[in-house]
Here is the input.
Amino acid sequence: MVYEVTSILTKDPVNQDVVAFSGFDFLGGGFRNNAATIFVTQKHWDERKETTPEVIGHFYMQLGHIKEALIFAIAPPPIFALGVSGGYEFHIQNRGENDPKKMAEVVGQILGRLNSDPKHVLGGAQTLWRSNVPQLYVDVDRDKAKALGVPIDSVYNTLAATLGSFYVNDFNKYGRTWQVLMSAEPQYRNRPDDIGAVWVRSERGEMVPLSALANVHYTSGPDSLSRFNNLPSVKIFGSGAPGVSTGQALARVDEIAKETLPIGFSHDWSGASFQERKGSGTGGLAIAMAAVMVFLILSALYEKWSLPLSVLLALPFGTFGALAAVWIGTYVKGFLGSPPLANDVYFQIGLVTLLGLAAKNAILIVEFAVLKMREGYSAAAAAIEAARLRFRPILMTSLAFILGVLPLVVSTGAGAGARHSVGTGVMGGMIAATFLAIFFIPLFFKVITDRRLREERSAEELRAEVEEGEKRSAQLHASAIAAMEEKR
Here is the structure.
């Protein structure tokens, strides 16, 4: 089976290397005789066009005809060494009696709910644990072994050393410690009746066949009984639906687990999912702390507590633009058949960046408005003149930044999803902060400075004040130049 799968994967022109480990359960952790793990690496992005979801989908198409085994593909974890797969992973814990049949029933129920989510938040879930794996049960007749003078530990050690593997000792070589494991040759332990060819020595020195002391028959049961938080547990892993963030998927799993798990069972997260749940809700806190830092820095700059509010009131425009861009981008990607955007950690990093970028435009206007008020302008006239003077610099710097972010929005290749989330949000936020906030920032400055919304003077009177101020500034500038000439 492993050879058939590796042969198919090797023939795929997208794949570069295929390495298989029979008996190794990478997801569950440990060794199993009915499991195998295959690591597949793809060629460089310059040599292929398929993305990771497309490669996984092609994998299922190639191996869908195999019915003798459960075969599935997973992407690597987003953070290496933190979990073993992408998506989410959690453990079902049995806090009552350690009954494998009850555990199998509960696991089947929650897997059914996860794989048929009516809200279409989850993309699917799976587990490698099975409660009815074919097994061989060795029934040792202890009374007969005692009557024949054969120690019970000798019976089990002989079984382990021949039909299984028996640890002998360790030795050091080549700078490493190696284990010595003893086992019979494969041709002598292929069938259950091979136990008849194994003999054990009694206390009287006589050789007794194991077939006279033990009976081997077929049965079924769980292949392993792992523990998590010191409780019997079963590991389940899955992923969210396309366009759904991991935070939304984890919240939906919590809801289903709360509705499905009976008394005596609980669930707990592990790997990257545990870290995400532990740090959930910190995105909003980070944005709030960033806004507080902007406020404190501006308060020190202007030496006032009220004036920085005219800058902070421009920040919601950037957030609105980022959310609108992601909403529009989701529909565009859906039309093109690409995975939609999500409110992930990359998008939240972009929101924190937008706080500084949106505040930059407001600072340019407010700073010049403060200077104009020191020259004798009223608050309304100073706001108008500052907006006029800084309109072109704001457009130039903002458009330069927007065009600089555009490659992130249309990027392809490795890490394109993260770049799309950051670039789309930041680009949309800067467009809104440039073409919407610029008309409101002078109003915010005037309202906060004058403490009133209504302006008694007409537009003509304000324009006349601005023109008079320009003449006054020109005269002061000419006087300063004349004074400098006299000094020369």
Remarks:
- The CA atoms of residues 77 and 86 lie 4 Å apart.
- Residues 133-221 form a domain with the Multidrug efflux transporter AcrB TolC docking domain; DN and DC subdomains fold (CATH 3.30.2090.10).
- The radius of gyration is 36 Å.
- Residues 379-409 form the longest helix (31 residues).
